[in-house]
Amino acid sequence: MYGSAALLAGGALGGTLWRGLAEPRTALAFGLLVAVGELARWGALPGEREPAPLGAAGALAYALLGENAGQRATHGVLQTLAVVAAATLAGSVPHLARRRGPALDHLARRVLTTAFAAVCFQPLYDAGYASGSDGLVERFGKGPFYAATLLLLLVLTALCDAVLAALLLRARTRHPFGPLLRDELRALLHIGSAVCATGAVIALGVAVAGLWALPVFCVPLLLTQLSYRRYAAVRTTYRQTIASLARATEIAGYTPHGHARRVAELSRAVGRELGLSGPELTVLEYAALMHDIGQLSLVDPVPEGATAFLPADEQRRIALLGGEVVRQTGVPAAVAVVVERQADPYREQPLSARIVRTVNAYDDLTGECATASGPLGGSLGALERLRLGTGHDYQPEVVESLARVLSRGGPAPGGTG
């Protein structure tokens, strides 16, 4: 996919240089808009689906631009790609220099999505102009049919972008494609819809009012971006608060250092492998971070915090105590359910509880097995003991998903707990 994007961008730049730049003022205005949008990524938080919504909206608007102040636009598909690719690369240089995020994924998505929108719209719009027959505007006018056509193109472009994002993430993480695509499609209802709407409004505004419409219609998206990042910052702070609360067992000496973090990271990877997405992964991560918090209610700490070696009744009692503590912290009730159900037989558990129980046992077992046979033997020995317990304690599918994650170099536990 990187190669396809590079070939498209290189061919567009070469073709534009060969033919010359049409409507240079318009090209410069949209190029600056895209570049400024990319520079505005400085405040982006890790994991944002669209870190540069203004740049995305500007690229989409240029691809859907049919007229400029009542005059037919003549920039064409190749110039659209060339301007967007050059502006995106120019705005991304500071981020590439500081190695902030998967920049190649972002560049490839921007080029390929813009190419899709431009190829779908501009030949259709210019059909009458090039052949003397009726084009899109001549045939349908600028009324409801034209708006419906733009809406359909926006929907198709958004779906194309979601598929590209899921494919790129799949190639980088090896997570199942289906859950990744569901996450991307769910994100379209939030910042994705704002980007599509702004891109279409900018294109229509420039068609009537000229380039002065650019700054006017960019303000709402900038405000939306600011509000979204504040919300994302609140969620990040919330997660950090939960992680700090989960470390209480480590500070008090009930569990080894880093146990909750290791279980959370590995549980999230296993959840991805099993097809969980979005809110389900968030609940799973929070429950994994807080799964041992019930040990704070014990008078005598469990040796090394290894609850996997305790009798079933004692494990269940600690889990129920943990669920009571979690309910008092204000986190979603689903998190408390996972924590208090983690010691039940796996056939009676929700999937998230099965994952937490299996990964927690794996982290406990690696330390015991590693003591006898070394780190490699610890991992393999722990997996073998988990497989022996699949009749009652651990779901076989969860254990095998854990094995696949570890075989790909997933988060490796480092000690008992």
Briefly summarize what is shown.
The protein has 417 residues and is mostly helical.
List keywords for this structure.
single chain; 417 residues; two-stranded antiparallel ribbon
How would you sum up this structure, described in words?
With 417 residues, the protein is an all-alpha fold. It is built from 17 helices and two strands. The chain has helices at 2-19, 24-39, 53-63, 76-98, 103-125, 127-131, 136-140, 144-173, 177-209, 213-246, 248-251, 259-273, 279-289, 312-327, 333-341, 351-388, 396-407, and strands spanning 67-68, 71-72. The chain has a two-stranded antiparallel ribbon with strand order 1-2. Helix 3 runs parallel beside helix 5 (103-125) and helix 13 (279-289) packs across helix 15. The protein is elongated, with a radius of gyration of 27 Å. The chain starts with a helix and ends in a 10-residue tail after the last helix. Residues 128-134, 370-376 and 412-417 have low confidence and may be disordered.
